[in-house]
Design brief:
Shape: globular
Number of strands: 20
Order of helices and strands: EEEEEEEEEEEEEEEHEEEEE
Radius of gyration: 19 Å
Length: about 240
């Protein structure tokens, strides 16, 4: 570290300094998607607008936590550098999700600190004078290590409309309190050199010991056994939202 303050925890691991940044919850809320009991038809897209634009240059990190189940794809940010206004994502319409309530909670986190300090507080700035931490921040706690090659095949594969969806899963935390990093895992399609396919990921009903996903392949022309390969991890806010 060349500038700032450094602390270590009981395991002698760095907690925060001007180089080891922490994620701060910048906004949070809930989303409705799928077919809740009151909905006349299936809601296929969730559109989120932040209460106020997020002014970081880097896009915020989006985390999702379905209340029970949900398989999502194509998460896209709205706005742009210095003026991120929200995001949207789609529901994968395959059994058992096309007739199910797949609603849940979302949060976005940034490496910038935007909280006003309390009367008695610690505030850290970097060499450029930017506030990088204040004690009022609601930090994001990592509860599962980043994984990008932890997928293994499962037996949930199925064919639909000329596409064979191969099923994958990776070990998860078992807790319904944990969110998964969605902006990397769901951020666009997979290109296998031939076609681009959606790579929906999420949870099946009542299951949190695995994170599940699918990879599509055109029946008769592709194998479809390549894995997602994008990084994700489990996290939860330090304080209730």
């Amino acid at each position: 570290m060349t500038y700032g303050f450094r602390s270590r925890n009981g395991l002698n691991l760095f907690q925060i300094d001007s180089e080891n940044r922490v994620l701060n919850v910048a906004a949070s809320g809930s989303y409705t998607i799928g077919k809740p009991a009151w909905a006349p038809k299936t809601i296929t897209q969730a559109v989120i607008t932040y209460p106020a634009p997020i002014t970081t240059t880097e896009a915020p990190h989006v985390f999702l936590n379905p209340t029970n189940q949900g398989m999502y794809h194509t998460l896209m940010h709205t706005g742009g550098p210095g003026n991120w206004t929200g995001f949207y994502f789609l529901l994968q319409l395959m059994p058992p999700f096309n007739g199910s309530d797949c609603s849940g909670k979302w949060l976005v986190a940034t490496f910038s600190s935007t909280s006003p300090p309390n009367q008695y507080d610690l505030r850290l700035r970097n060499a450029a004078g930017e506030q990088i931490f204040v004690g009022a921040d609601n930090l994001l706690l990592m509860t599962g290590f980043p994984v990008n090659e932890g997928w293994s095949h499962d037996r949930r594969g199925q064919s639909q409309s000329g596409v064979m969806w191969s099923g994958f899963q990776m070990p998860w935390t078992g807790s319904f309190d944990d969110y998964f990093l969605a902006s990397t895992l769901l951020g666009g399609k997979s290109n296998n050199g031939n076609t681009t396919r959606e790579t929906p990921c999420g949870f099946h009903a009542g299951v949190r010991n695995t994170l599940n996903g699918y990879m599509g392949a055109l029946i008769g022309t592709e194998t479809g056994f390549d894995k997602n390969g994008r990084t994700t991890f489990a996290a939860r806010p330090m304080r209730p939202l």
